[in-house]
Amino acid sequence: NAGVTQTPKFRVLKTGQSMTLLCAQDMNHEYMYWYRQDPGMGLRLIHYSVGEGTTAKGEVPDGYNVSRLKKQNFLLGLESAAPSQTSVYFCASSSWDISNQPQHFGDGTRLSIL
Amino acid sequence: SQKIEQNSEALNIQEGKTATLTCNYTNYSPAYLQWYRQDPGRGPVFLLLIRENEKEKRKERLKVTFDTTLKQSLFHITASQPADSATYLCALPSGTGANNLFFGTGTRLTVIP
After folding, report:
1. What is the CATH number of the domain that holds B55?
2. Which of A52, A74, B1, B26 can bridge A23 by disulfide, Cβ–Cβ 3.0-4.6 Å?
3. Total structural domains in chain B?
4. Which strands, in side-by-side order, build the sheet including A19-25?
């Protein structure tokens, strides 16, 4: 039982390049989330999904797109990377009833935009 | 929107002492509050959840209290050990749907042997 797996773990991009971060969970969770974590800012929600085929904007969605084609996968895309998107990105998942279940996090993708 | 303040960025204590971390929030009172632990280079790991109608919750050496009047939660680690050194995050429901959480910036705890 791997939980939440994020790939890649590290990546360096040049400004303007694009890339996709992959999140996979094996807990059959309905809800999935993408966060970014910056020093002094805490975790901020980028996008989330309440189920296969659905996505919604979080607190800081600009510059990112997401897709949830399969229940177990949640993809985060950067179409044209900017230095301000240098951050650590975390994916999480949870069951539909958060009052009884926590969010489960992956170990993050460290992304640097030069 | 909800705002969370965790008492300090860093807290150093001697091994064996009790560590107390504070989480203060503004605006609406949440139905529950969660605490997570985050080690360097790792994702947050859930520790405890406390609901608004619960005054206190315990798990082994961990204790969480929730005071809706003061809009505050206290997180205690008794008989602290160097292995308890980590960043501790509190989180509240953000009210934006899908059980979304709003996280504090965390308190980095160092337990000195």
Report:
1. 2.60.40.10
2. A74
3. 1
4. A4-7, A19-25, A73-78, A64-67
Domain around B35: 15-90
How is residue B41 written in tokens?
């280079």
Which residues in chain A have Cβ-Cβ distances shorter than 8 Å to B51? 99
Structure confidence by residue, pLDDT tens digits, B45-96: 999 999 988 989 999 999 999 998 999 999 999 999 999 999 999 999 887 7
In Å, how far is B3's CA from the nearest CA of chain A?
A: 12
Q: Residue A64: pLDDT above 90? A: yes
Give the pair of three-digit tokens for residue B104. Answer: 């504090």
Q: List the structure tokens of B63.
A: 């204790």
Q: Which residues of A touch B41 (CB under 8 A)?
A: 107-108
Rg, Å, chain B Cα set: 14
